[in-house]
From TrEMBL:
Family: Belongs to the TMEM229 family.
Key words, A-Z: Membrane, Transmembrane, Transmembrane helix
Primary location: membrane
GO cellular component: membrane
Highest classification ranks of the organism: Eukaryota, Metazoa, Chordata, Craniata, Vertebrata
Protein name (Swiss-Prot/TrEMBL): Transmembrane protein 229B
């Protein structure tokens, strides 16, 4: 079976299952995935925290719409760090760098949002907080989050491909040419 693949000069034939028309996701597409992931994790973390601290069986997870921008942008920047550091630093050092970046980013975005009375978090009740914008009590969760972010979220997002020739809702095409196909090499 053969699938048509467009080329600049003429249509050529490529074997089914090849990814000739598949392209990496754009930065905006990756930002969107990272933003949604961060938003979801924020809600789940706050729900778990509420259960552990207050034994609240309702698991009320909360966040702010600002989290979409904050997480999407931060993880996209960490992605760039990952691509530069992956062959130069051991994993644990990279995760430490990502954790330090997370503290810097959380402080900066929190400080800016506070100027508009829009900062959705306040760590003032924690023992090791700084200006209520960051707290050392979250160092281990941020480090573990950095490890998960690199090893699962960023690495797999960078493997995703978009097939520009696939028609939305088209049924019966070869599965290897479907949108969102994960690159296997």
């Amino acid at each position: 079976m053969v699938a048509s693949v467009k080329s600049p000069k003429t249509r050529q034939q490529a074997p089914v299952g090849t990814m000739a028309s598949a392209e990496p996701l754009t930065a905006l597409s990756r930002w969107y995935l990272y933003a949604i992931h961060g938003y979801f994790c924020e809600v789940m973390f706050t729900a778990a925290w509420e259960f552990v601290v207050n034994f609240n069986w309702k698991f009320p997870g909360v966040t702010s719409v600002w989290a979409l921008f904050i997480y999407g942008t931060s993880i996209l920047i960490v992605e760039r760090m990952y691509l530069r550091l992956r062959g130069r630093c051991p994993l644990l050092v990279r995760c430490l760098i990502y954790t330090l970046w997370t503290y810097l980013w959380e402080f900066t975005t929190g400080f800016i949002l506070r100027q508009f009375n829009a900062c959705p978090w306040d760590y003032s009740q924690f023992d090791f907080d700084f200006m209520g914008l960051i707290t050392l009590e979250y160092a281990v969760p941020w480090f573990c989050g950095a490890l998960i972010m690199e090893q699962f979220i960023i690495r797999n997002t960078l493997r995703l491909r978009f097939d520009k020739d696939a028609e939305p809702g088209e049924l019966g095409g070869p599965p290897a040419l479907a949108n969102g196909h994960v690159k296997t090499d």
